[in-house]
Amino acid sequence: GAVVSQHPSRVICKSGTSVKIECRSLDFQATTMFWYRQFPKQSLMLMATSNEGSKATYEQGVEKDKFLINHASLTLSTLTVTSAHPEDSSFYICSAPWTVRRNEQFFGPGTRLTVL
Amino acid sequence: AQSVAQPEDQVNVAEGNPLTVKCTYSVSGNPYLFWYVQYPNRGLQFLLKYITGDNLVKGSYGFEAEFNKSQTSFHLKKPSALVSDSALYFCAVSPGRWPGNTGKLIFGQGTTLQVKP
């Protein structure tokens, strides 16, 4: 089956710094990827849709300048949390629809961000 | 508004007993329905999906789910629970058909399944 990886798996940073999270589709191409945010013991909230070669589409209430998304290639999307603050601490998960069976999405293992 | 509801925050069952995790949805058109499982600090793992066809769908690890259009439900079931099934379970719906639906998933709140020996 398809595999999606994320890097790093865990990051701790100081308030005010920026953090970049990578999401890669390892054995398939993904023109679209999705970024989710999950608070402890809560559901996944879709933040944005990452589109290869074009601008990301953000969900209502998500700050575009805060969460920068770049989908530079068919296998890589990045989420940059700019000027991070403690309230940005969360579990960030990406997913990609599988091109073979597009109704299946594959999720990355997630990135735990802790902002001190 | 499109939504998915999992009415139980937690389900407790004894090992060997059957389990049910409930899910109802409110989506226009003919949705695609999914169940995912999440272990602590991990991403989501796909269990099963309903696209069309038989209402009873069989998935990974012995799980199955029954699609009921009249009740707009897609409950997850397993005949005999294992301690290792203990995890967080999410029901999700993708409204419409690819590519029109853009592949977005709407998730339920999640249900913690606790299987005790």
| Class of secondary structure makeup of chain B | mainly beta
Query: What fraction of the residues of chain A are assigned to beta strands by DSSP?
Result: over 45%
Protein chains sharing the most extensive interface: A-B, 25 and 25 residues
Task: Determine the N-to-C terminus distance of chain B.
Answer: 41 Å
* Unreliable stretches of chain B: none
Task: Output the radius of gyration of chain B.
Answer: 14 Å
Gyration radius from CA atoms of chain A, angstroms: 13 Å
Q: Return the average pLDDT of chain B rounded to an integer.
A: 89
Structural class of chain A: mainly beta
Task: State the end-to-end distance of chain A.
Answer: 37 Å
What oligomeric state do the depicted chains represent? heterodimer
Q: How many runs of DSSP E, i.e. beta strands of chain A?
A: 11
* Molecular shape of chain A: globular
The helix/strand order of chain A is: EEEEEEEEEEE
> How much strand of chain B?
over 45%
Please explain how this structure is put together.
The complex is a heterodimer of chains A (116) and B (117). Chain A has strands at residues 4-7, 10-13, 19-25, 32-38, 44-51, 57-58, 67-73, 76-81, 90-97, 105-107, 111-115. Chain A has 116 residues and is an all-beta fold. In chain A, a hairpin with a 5-residue loop joins β4 and β5. In chain B, 0% of the residues lie in helices and 50% in strands. Chain B has strands spanning 3-5, 10-14, 19-21, 24-26, 32-38, 44-50, 56-58, 64-68, 73-78, 87-94, 106-107, 111-116. Classes of the chains: A mainly beta (116), B mainly beta (117).
